[in-house]
Amino acid sequence: MALCLKQVFNKDKTFRPRKKFEPGTQRFELYKKAQASLKSGLDLKAVVQLPPGESINDWIAVHVVDFFNRINLIYGTMSEYCTEKSCPIMSGGLRYEYRWQDDSKYKKPTKLSAPQYMCMLMDWIEMLINNEDIFPTRIGVPFPKQFQQVCTKILTRLFRVFVHVYIHHFDSIINMGAEAHVNTCYKHFYYFIREFSLIDHRELEPLVRMPQ
């Protein structure tokens, strides 16, 4: 029997707290606007478009944080099926292998299991979005010049979570009755990155047929 959204995205199954927007800030208002559009049933292609008069960097920041939260929930929900034994390599089928590099502990692209890669990824993103020098929250503090480059890297790596989940674990998603919610999240993500050209088209090849 299909599970309801609350059951599918059970916060008790995730491995880190959600990043939140501070009430009263411009980003919180943009987040509310984005969520209201999603819930209104509007076409997802229209939902991702920049609202008139709004800052593109604020709009991107809101979505990067929201996608991090949502994709973290998706992976947390099915992480019990993604183990060192079942997924010894972080991959998307036989053609695509993703290696980890963070210029800190892993200075060269390193082969990791999928669970290790996911853990490193979520820690890395969490560190970035909580860094005031990259994702400033104070009024009047500008975004750094490399902000969109950082977001491109974050979104590219988050896309790889979708690749791994769809190719290696979609049977589990179906068994949980979660496929409709995962598909909606993926389509929202896909239309957003295409709207603002935030991911190299070559990265999209593993799931090139999915939007249809």
TrEMBL record:
Binding site for Zn(2+): C82, C87, H164, H169
Source domain of life: Eukaryota
Signal peptide location: none
Coiled coil (residue ranges): none
InterPro entries, alphabetized: MOB_kinase_act_fam, MOB_kinase_act_sf
PANTHER family per the UniProt record, alphabetical: MPS ONE BINDER KINASE ACTIVATOR-LIKE MOB
Designated name of the protein: MOB3C kinase
